[in-house]
Amino acid sequence: MHPSLTETPALSRRGLLKFSLGATAFLATAGLGASLSGCSSSVPAGGYAALRSNDLPFLRALIPVMLDGAVAADKMAAAVEGTLQSLDQGLDHLSPEMLKLSRQLFDVLGMAVTRGPLTGIWGSWENADPDAVRHFLERWRNSSLSLLRMGHSSLLQMVMMAWYKRVESWAHCGYPGPPSV
């Protein structure tokens, strides 16, 4: 007699480790493939010091979702552009190794081959529905794979630090600004 599905664990510890190892190898291979194929250009987009043109569509889809509730709808476009500028400044001051890791994350999220399976967004970022972006962030935040949880945490920290660095964000959180000296 076979045990019922409720009596057997859905995924054993060994199975989870194998899956995590496979996912890590997949992401590393995809990132390496992107860099070797030229998808991962290190040339900054016009007007930016570190952000590349292929990073911008993803970030322009992500930032409004992350800032939802903190920015009025009529000011969202300006907030997104300002946050991109702050993010660019922050990335430009990272160590070369940290910048490389950030770019690898952006590459994995920007490539169609990896974007669909990892995010659930099969089309381009320009056409991504905000609810689909929210779902992707929720999936990564609650993932059983530590690599995806770290990716979520990195994205959240980068965007939030870039936003709260900006003067226009301070009123929303009650910060009066730095003291006058």
UniProtKB/TrEMBL annotation:
InterPro entries: TAT_signal. It comes from the Bacteria. PROSITE patterns: TAT. This is Twin-arginine translocation pathway signal protein.
